[in-house]
Amino acid sequence: MNNFATWMESKLSGPMTKLSNQRHLLAIRDGVISALPFIIFGSFFLIFATPPLPESWAITQWATAHAEQILIPYRMTMFIMSLYIVFGIGYNLAKSYDLDPLSAAQLSTAAFLLTISPTMDKDLGFVLPMTNLGGHGLFVAMFVAIFSVETYRLCKNKNITIKMPPQVPPSVSRSFESLIPVVFVLGAMSIITVAFQLDLHMLVDKIVGPLVFAGDTLPGVLVPVFLTTFFWSFGIHGMSIVGTIERPLWEVYLAKNAEAHAAGEPLPHIAPETFFQWFVWIGGAGATLGLVICILLFAKSQFLKKFGKAVSIPSLFNINEPVIFGLPIVLNPIMVIPFIIIPIVLTIITYIATWLGLVNATSVMAPWTLPAPIGAYLATGGDWRAIILVLFNIAVSVIIYFPFFKMYDRKMVLEESGESKEEIEKDMKEGN
């Protein structure tokens, strides 16, 4: 195990860390995360518009009759998430280059809006279609933000900007400094979308369509689950690497599910990020709530008894770094095995259950610190079966963790008794 860990550290840790810290990927990650408060807020209005209550109840009938009004906050937040995200990506990428982040964010937003072709309504005049402002436009938003900021940076590095005298206020100087980049970027976007009438959203759909499809298949779902726990096993923050790459795809799935939910249509995707959050990462990466339950109920080691009490509350709210590094699970040859296996098993169970219609797919972004049964109930739009599935998955994780926990507990008891390393290894082999 130690030799393999050394190899991992020398061969994979560096490249993976560089990948997770890549400037553009970080900007995309931070841009998406910056929109989460709006997405979470808007998501709850999906529940308010379709309350998980009997249809005969007066409140349900009232919500159905006023659904269009109730959904307005959703349509102004989650339904146009790409507008918030393109601003966030442009801001964070410019900040990493030490450019004026506000000017770059505004430029990115304006360039993105040029990709949204307005239509003419005889009563309303020019109307901006909202379809591509939501999750459907997320990949175009990422491309446009990067293009805008890189053009801005190129202009500044090559001194293709308007320089104002020192006595001019800084805010005015920044505005004029960004004028030429604005002309280049918006001019290019106008030529592409207006003169050539090229629909970037349709083009990107054709390019990333296979990726969107593959990421929602069972193999496509299992890959990030395995990689997340695999990296965590060596002390590398798995989600910071996997999530940086996968999160834009997960956001697309969630947005399309939310749009279908609001329209009363079948949900098209099984595996947004909320699929993993509530049904796989129960208690945190590795579904360690099951391990904590084993410790609380069955530990004989004095250390584990105290440890279980200390980490029980954080684990309930999906904070499990104390378990990963305190038990530890990192570089622990006994506990690493179930830590990797259990999420794979839970993913398969949940994927099949969702595919068969035994539980609703997720369409609501609930705060990740909620206890899993509550979070799953909200994320599925109030499906009580989600609570049953979470409890079933917890039971599965307890069952799989138990024999490995007992082995580790026995090892800890022997260490506490003062036995030497050689005696402990002998007793472990003999099963004493």
From TrEMBL:
Membrane topology listed for this record: Multi-pass membrane protein
One GO molecular-function entry: protein-N(PI)-phosphohistidine-sugar phosphotransferase activity
Membrane-crossing residue ranges in chain numbering: 26-50, 70-87, 99-117, 137-155, 176-196, 278-299, 334-358, 384-404
Keywords in alphabetical order: Cell membrane, Membrane, Sugar transport, Transmembrane, Transmembrane helix, Transport
Pfam families, alphabetized: PTS_EIIC
Choose any GO biological process term that the UniProt entry carries and state it.
phosphoenolpyruvate-dependent sugar phosphotransferase system
PTS EIIC type-3 domain segment(s): 8-404
What InterPro entries does this protein's entry cite?
PTS_EIIC, PTS_EIIC_3, PTS_IIC_cello, PTS_Sugar-EIIC/EIIB
User: Which domain of life, per UniProt?
Assistant: Bacteria
Q: Which PROSITE patterns match?
A: PTS_EIIC_TYPE_3
Cellular localization per UniProt: Cell membrane
Give the record's GO CC terms: plasma membrane
What does the UniProt function comment say about this protein?
The phosphoenolpyruvate-dependent sugar phosphotransferase system (PTS), a major carbohydrate active -transport system, catalyzes the phosphorylation of incoming sugar substrates concomitant with their translocation across the cell membrane.
> What is the name of this protein?
Permease IIC component
Specify the taxonomic lineage.
Bacteria, Bacillati, Bacillota, Bacilli, Bacillales
